[in-house]
Structure prediction request, 534 residues.
Amino acid sequence: MADPADTRDAPLIAPIERTGRGFYLTVGILLAFIVWGAVAYWTQFTEGLGVTGLHQPVSWGFYVTNFVFFIGISHAGTLISAILRLSKAEWRRPVVRMAEVITVMVLFIGAGQILVDLGRPDRMLNIIRHGRYQSPLLWDATSISAYLTASIVYLYIPMIPDIAILRDRVGKRKLLYTVLAMGWRGTVHQQRVLNRAIAIMAVLVIPIAVSVHTVVSFVFSMTLQPMWHSTIFGPYFVVGAIFSGIAALIVAMVAFRKAYGLQGYLKPIHFRYLGQLLLVMSLLWFYFTFAEYLTGYYGNEPEEMKVFQAKFTGPYWPFFWGMALTNFVIPVLCLVRLGRRTIGKVLLASLSVTVGMWLERFIIVVPTLSNPRLPFGEGIYAPTWVEWGELAGSLALFALFYVLFTKIFPVISIWEIREGRDVGLKEVEERLRTYLPDTPEAGVVPAARGH
Amino acid sequence: MANLRAAPDRTVRVIQWGMAGVAVVFIGGIITWIAHLIRTAWRLGDVPSASIGISLVAIPVFLTLLGVILYVFVGLLRDRGER
Prediction:
């Protein structure tokens, strides 16, 4: 399985062996944003949350928006990868690793947003010592811990054969690769263990991923706040998460395809299939959004209508209609007909959805808090440079983690590509035969059944 | 030369089994924490049924994850000599 003499997939190892100027430039730019985020956090840490735009009644602003957004993007990975693996979609091979990496990296960033949101992070240990387990916030902590653990395992296990290739071929980081390769030699027993573990994880990770975003939605829907107390919030959040996850995956694919010259692996057909998935999710997202808002509007409950009006025609209208434009109108126009320039259209739709899903999270979190059920009076939220810095820093940190990962491990699964070439074609043919109806031998007419 | 090779190999093995140990401690720690939350809820009469209900889902998930991790570690490390 891990033949060091096999150089067919040298482009996948090249980014690990060689580092160009582009890498340092990218890291430099990302570090500049991370420094901005660090300065912003230090200012907040030393002076308190008063330096942000957060106040009463809007006590959740950018940070909780970012939290929901990043946790949502994490569905890229594991969920899409697991579904494609289980359904034996052959086109998954160059895609799954990128998706799995997104999940792990972005979960760290997402969970970190909650720490940033704490006015007194020094009291964080109290959550562990004196937590109340009937609180949805602790359900979140538990489900995200489970998801992060599962995602790390699900990323690591399929990487073992590739790490063994690096151990045998790459001259640097010998100890790291030797340790992580787990003595992989590609024996029949080892392959059986690996395949069984991947299959178990692929099944396990889907309900975990779905439950995570459902639990994230519970943080809102378990309250009685207007336009939060909704039974469809769970599936609505899950659909949005998968939607934003696919978009983030496509953006990452286009970026690394260009940066590492992976045109031979990530072909227009991969973008076409993912683009079709994105289109389906855009329509599903529209359906859930329409159902959610129609129910609120039809009920005409005064407190709900205040939030409804704030979103449609009030101070938050640019965000709401911007969300509709970027999550529905632009993606549908781009994806409904993928003829020429497939990659460009899919990328445009994905960038649009990435912005749109952040707006969606914002439009869920802030207008309700601006118009709470309790008699607080209306509050308008305006983020300061601190929150903008945190947002920029978080996005840059995610990108930096991702780029650094690709300098240590292959961003496309080498062994899965080889497996596809060597045994996949034959397997697909055999599998296809099992799907098709049995064909009678030539010249033999099946007996007619009399009725 | 053989000794030089043997030492890093032993180090590698120790680190690898150490990783398995970290997984046990990490997941064991989470399960202990969940048990602590249930105990606190029980002691304070603070809706322990909710805590128990959530933990009935959470603990088996973590145990299954630990099972998969140990299955991979033991399955691969015990077979390292054969080709």
